[in-house]
Each structure stands twice: as C-alpha cells, then as structure tokens.
Amino acid sequence: MAERTTEKALENARQATIAGGEERFLTLARGDMEGFRRTSATGLRLIGFLLIPASAASAALAEPIVRLVYQHGEFSADQTTVVAQCLAAFSLGLAFNGAMLMLNRSFFSLQSPWVPTAVALGNLGLNTVLDAAFYHFGAWGIALSTSICNIVATVALIQLLRRRIGRVELRETVRSTILTLLAAGALAVVAHEVWAGLDDTLGRSIGAQIVSLVVALAVGVGVYLGVSLLMGVRELRPLRSIAVDDR
Question: What distance lies between CA 192 and its chain's CA centroid?
Fold first, then answer.
C-alpha cells in the first residue's frame, strides 16, 4: 500500500510540476535556470504535500492496515503487531524517498548523474552501519534505519543542489513542510480515532474492517484538505488544476 501510494503521488507531482514531461525539465536545466529552480522547488513541495499525509496515515493506521491485508490463516495477531511496527517506522521516510527521486531527476537533467550516485553509495554504507546498530530493536529497527537513510540522503542532495544552482526556495519549502506536517498531524489523530470508534462498534469481520479503515481514511483525508485550505497551503492550487484538467 505504501509503494502504491508513493507511485501515485509521484505521478501527480510530475504532472503538476513538469507539464511537458521530462523533455521540458531537461530543457529548463539547459536554458532557463530560474525556471529549473522553480520547477525543482515546486516539485519538492508537492511531493511533501502528497506523501507526508500518506506517511501519517500509514503510521496512525498501521495495525488495522496490516491486520486487514495479512492477518488470515496462520498469520497471527502477534505477527500483525511486528509488521505494523515496521510499516510505521518505514512511513517516517516515505516522503523523503519521494523527494530523493525528484532530486535525482534534477541532477540527471543537469547532466550530473554522478552526484546522486555518490550519495547513494554513501547512503548504502550508512544503511549498513545503522542496520547493524538497530537490528537489536527488532524488525522495525531495520525499517527505521532505511527511513533515517532516506532523510540523510535527501538533506545531502538538497545541499548539493543548492551549491550547483543557488537558491531552491528553501524558505518557502520549509514553510510549506511545517504547514503540511500540522495538517497531517490532524489527519493522523482524526483517522485513528474514527477507526477506533468504528472498530469497537462494527467488530472485526472482513467487511467491518474494510468499512472502518476506508471511512477513517476518507475522514482523515477530508480533515487534511480542510486544515490545509484553512492554513492557506499553496500546494492545493496546482493539484486543483490537475483535477480540472482531468475532467
């Protein structure tokens, strides 16, 4: 579910920020550096706007998601808890994983593929060290190690991109990220409480689990969009334009 969410979010971000596809992105890098900066920064903010709430929802509803998908036959409740912990830990790095893909594309467009390659190699070494340190915590420690590596690699790529092209609208990106985190926090709290109430009321048959989870996610998304609108999150605008264009 997390992988499908990532793929869909990245596709939406691509449509919103690179209207003419990869060829236009490459053209911007070659002839319009200001446009390239703007496109890269907008892409990062849109990815955050899409994937931070996905991370929050995955973490808040990790146990019911895993229970619905896997807890059948010999898959026990104890195993559900273990896998849910892994999903929650992995969710921490979901948005950063999406940002890394966007930043990699930026460097490829600048004809500097060696930069993300070097960062990836360094990240591989860091991941090895953190896996060795965190596996004592249990299976979720490995997922947490991956998330931390995603965060570190994203920060490194942003700093290297700033050195290459100058400013990347960092202040606006930080502002957008803070507002998105607040809205995603509201999503997580509301979605979990709605699920908990429905879970107590409807029980845990397959149908009841589906209803509880779908309703909780729908309400959570509604809260996220509503809070984002109230706080004036600007990333709603290009997404609204996509919805209009798709009609």
Answer: 19
Q: Which two tokens stand for residue 108?
A: 């490829």
Using left for φ > 0, alpha for ψ between -120 and 50, and beta otherwise, residue 111 falls in left
Q: Which residues contact 120 (CB under 8 A, 6 or more apart)?
A: 153
CA atoms within 13 A on the CB side of 185: 6
Is residue 99 within 8 Å of residue 155, measured between CB atoms?
Answer: no
pLDDT tens sequence across 194-209 = 999 999 999 989 999 9
Q: Is the pTM of this model over 0.85?
A: no
Distance CA 155, CA 144 (A): 17
Question: Percent of the chain at pLDDT above 90?
Answer: 60
Residue 49 CA to residue 47 CA, distance in Å, equals 5
The residue assigned the tokens 């950063």 is 96
Tell me if residue 165 falls in helix, strand or coil: helix
Instruction: Find where tokens 């446009």 sit.
Output: 35
CB 189 within 8 A of CB 61: no
What is the Cα–Cα distance from 183 to 225, expressed in whole angstroms? 8
Helix or strand or coil: residue 247?
Answer: coil
DSSP string for 60-87: HTHHHHHHHHH-STT--HHHHHHHHHHH
